[in-house]
Design brief:
By secondary structure, the chain is of the alpha/beta class. The protein has a single domain, classed as 60s Ribosomal Protein L30, Chain: A (2-Layer Sandwich), CATH 3.30.1330. Helix content is 26%, strand content 21%. Strands 1, 2, 3, 4 and 5 form a five-stranded mixed β-sheet that branches. The protein is globular and about 40 Å long. The chain starts with a strand and ends in a 27-residue tail after the last strand.
Length: 151
């Protein structure tokens, strides 16, 4: 039962960049598509990992962008373009609300073998009440406990 899950998505559409000057309808269409893609991928990974469907209150997310060319990229804009993906995580039930996401530093890597993509590494930061462990694993099916984690 892993404490972390990894979701792999294609790079966000360029319409989602904060620097993009596009019509609001094009941006909304791109955001809806990327949010739906993130939702579907999160549900698939969570089902494959047999995660309990209890949304976390707080998660840590690290985004690792893989590009084919080694050039300088703006990490702040890259993170901002992932906003629809974080909304998709909330839609998938990984987290209750995307305001509980702790964003770890963005990494940019070069990968000549794979097509450009982004990996979201997600770790649950919730503490289960009365639990001796520091972090509650996202896979946590607590036997003999109610929905709040109490015995």
């Amino acid at each position: 039962m892993p404490d972390k899950i990894t979701i792999t998505l294609p790079l966000p559409p360029k319409e989602l960049s904060p620097n993009a000057r596009v019509h609001w309808a094009r941006r909304a269409k791109a955001a809806k598509g990327y949010r739906t893609l993130a939702w579907a991928e999160a549900r698939t990974v969570a089902n494959f990992a047999c995660l309990a469907w209890t949304p976390a209150e707080r998660i840590a997310v690290q985004a690792i962008f893989y590009h084919r060319l080694d050039r300088r990229r703006d990490k702040d804009n890259a993170l901002a373009s992932l906003k629809p993906a974080f909304d998709g995580l909330a839609d998938a039930g990984i987290i209750e609300n995307d305001s509980g996401i702790v964003h770890l530093p963005v990494c940019m890597k070069v990968d000549l073998e794979e097509p450009p993509h982004v990996e979201l590494i997600i770790e649950c930061l919730d503490e289960a009440p009365g639990d001796p462990y520091k972090h509650r694993p996202m896979t946590g099916h607590w036997p003999n406990r109610d929905q709040d984690g109490h015995r």
